[in-house]
Amino acid sequence: MPDVQVTCITKPHPQSPHEHITHLGNPDVPWKWTREQVITSIDAGTNTFFVIDPYNRKRSNVAVVRPSGRAPYLRTHADGDWNDNLLSLRQCP
Predict the structure, then answer these.
(1) Contact at 8 Å (CB) between 20 and 11?
(2) Rounded distance, CA 34 to CA 23, Å?
(3) Predicted TM-score of the model (pTM)
(4) If DSSP states are collapsed to H, E and C, what string results for the chain?
(5) Consecutive 10-residue runs of the chain (93 residues): their mean pLDDT?
(6) Distances (CA, A) of 58 to 14, 50, 67
């Protein structure tokens, strides 16, 4: 199972706090997948995804959150806590 680092995201309106991430990627490798492709890959166990905090160099794993009555979305999880490290990433080119 490949372990894949996420270094960028795409949101339709980058400054909006209410929009979902549509794509995740890493231009250095390069790769860019839709949110749905990443969710499918996590669910199937074919890949794991993570981000590295640029300040403390800690790893946060990307996981799928499934709120009742809403579409699943992606969020990072580290040290037993859910956090928003994905939203702090730069926009993908």
Answers:
(1) yes
(2) 4
(3) 0.89
(4) CCEEECCEEECCCCCCCCCCCCEEEECCCCEEEEHHHHHHHHHHCCCEEEEECCCCCCEEEEEEECCCCCCCEEEEEECCEEECHHHHCEECC
(5) 93 75 95 97 97 88 94 85 82 93
(6) 24, 10, 26
